[in-house]
Amino acid sequence: MIECVVEYLGMALLLVGAFFFFAGTVGLLRFPDVYSRLHALAKADNLGLGCVVLGLALQAESLAAALKLLLIWPLVMAASAGIGFAIARRADRLGIAPWRKEERDG
Amino acid sequence: MNTLLMSIALFLLANLVVALIAAVRGPTPADRMLMALLIGTTGTGILVLLAQAMHLPALVDVALVLALLAAIGGIAFAKRAWQGEEGGHD
Predict the structure, then answer these.
(1) Which residues of A touch B68 (CB under 8 A)?
(2) Could you give the ipTM of this predicted complex?
């Protein structure tokens, strides 16, 4: 019984993770400037990876394997926080203006 | 279960390919740099899924190394290599 619940929970988490990865890609394609694209990638993709890793850790053979899988997530989050900050600051220094909604007439 | 894992891995790979289109289209170098971020997360996800689907625990180590290299590579590029027209230091 409990194994069955854990397995279905793992599958559901994997599917939720795939959905968040898809949302990140849609954001990358649709958002208007580099800062908002950065926002889509840095948040949606990390949440997707977290769900995938959690779903896989539920199916891991041993506790050590599960903990190793879960170790990946903070590392990737720290990495993307650092990269996102570096890219955004550099883009700002290079004078890439943030996108603004066009003013309506009148 | 393995079918689900492999199909999600393929789906993530398709996401990566579609994002390459955005990298080609992106008007500024910053948009292209976003690929370093994307490959860091999506590539790690693909490797972790493959490790479980193919029963290769070593691929988890590869995923850890990829995450680490994506961080170092992205920050090094943003700090050093990508000089704009001003070309200066910061």
Answers:
(1) 75, 79
(2) 0.85
